[in-house]
Write a structure and sequence with these properties.
The chain is an alpha+beta fold and about 300 residues long. It is built from eight helices and twelve strands. It folds into two domains: about 1-15 and about 160-305, no CATH class; about 30-155, no CATH class. The strands form three sheets. The protein has a seven-stranded antiparallel beta sheet with strand order 2-11-10-5-6-7-8.
Length: about 300
């Protein structure tokens, strides 16, 4: 089963961050994007995914064009949908969070491709991302003639109490390790920690989904932590049915590494890209994963010693 899952993941590797339209957003950021003014009535702009992307919703009944970094037509948001200009240099830059892709010609005639059938669009915009603190703006063009603008600021985000989150997760992990004599307690921790991880990954994917990219793409971009959470739940259920202590230990170690340590930026940065309870989910993954790794290893060692 693991081999099959690995094969599927490899086959879908092309759905990387650039192809997933925003799935490369970090789990947390140390800055906050604030939208202060949108000059076009009926147009709403807000930061999403922790400020990694801007979202524009056009309820004005008019055609609104987002102008790019070189003043070219970049996105066209009509009452009936969204088009993207694939000759726009900004279109190339917006394909990933880093904005390193280069291409296009700002002076060329637009090459419009329909992106969505709803008047809602999200995009990476380096004008409204990352510190230092500053003001930013994105120009608009309404009905091909009337200028508009979106203005905002970038502000530093206060860091959470990082040391306390780490300490709490590690202490909780020690407490879980101390439950190694209680089989059903270990089962409960595995199901809870794995289930919370799956819920957090799914919630983050839902929040990152827009009309231009389906939920499936966002889930595929988070495939490995999602499979890790599912695997820990499965290991817990398996432990309830038979002695698979070593499997539980390995699953716990994977959860601690692939979710707890890998996503630990939530302990350091103030703005979360996913659900507001994401810190608790990562802390549970770290504590539960470490505790399961230790308790499962102890249980396996004692069973192996008894069999000898």
């Amino acid at each position: 089963m693991l081999a099959v899952l690995a094969g599927v993941a490899a086959a879908l590797a092309w759905c990387g961050p650039a192809g997933a339209h925003g799935a490369d957003a970090p789990v947390a950021a140390n800055y906050r994007v604030v939208v202060g003014e949108v000059s076009v009535p009926g147009v709403r702009v807000r930061p999403v995914e922790g400020g990694a992307r801007l979202e524009l919703t056009n309820a004005s009944g008019r055609e609104v064009v987002v102008l790019g970094l070189q003043g070219e037509e970049f996105l066209r948001v009509r009452p009936g949908g969204v088009d993207e200009n694939r000759r726009s240099p900004t279109w190339f830059a917006s394909r990933s969070l880093t904005g390193t892709a280069r291409g296009g010609d700002a002076s060329a005639a637009p090459e419009w491709h329909t992106l969505a059938t709803e008047p809602v669009v999200r995009w990476h915009d380096e004008r409204a991302r990352e510190l230092p603190a500053r003001a930013w703006s994105v120009p608009l063009l309404v009905d091909g003639r009337d200028p508009g603008i979106v203005r905002g600021t970038i502000e530093p985000a206060p860091a959470p109490p990082t040391g306390w989150w780490w300490a709490g997760a590690l202490v909780a992990g020690l407490l879980v390790a101390g439950l190694h004599r209680r089989r059903w307690a270990v089962v409960g921790v595995a199901v809870a920690a794995g289930g919370l991880t799956v819920a957090w990954i799914a919630g983050s994917a839902v929040l990152a989904t827009s009309p231009a990219d389906g939920l499936g793409i966002q889930l595929l971009a988070r495939l490995w932590p999602l499979l890790t959470g599912v695997g820990v739940v499965a290991a817990g259920i398996g432990l309830a049915l038979r002695r698979i202590d070593l499997v539980v230990a390995i699953a716990g170690a994977c959860l601690a590494v692939m979710v707890g340590f890998a996503e630990s930026a939530v302990f350091r940065d103030g703005v979360l890209a996913g659900p507001g309870w994401g810190r608790w989910a990562v802390a549970a993954a770290l504590a539960g994963g470490l505790g399961l790794a230790v308790s499962g290893a102890i249980r396996w060692y004692r069973t192996a010693g008894t069999e000898k």
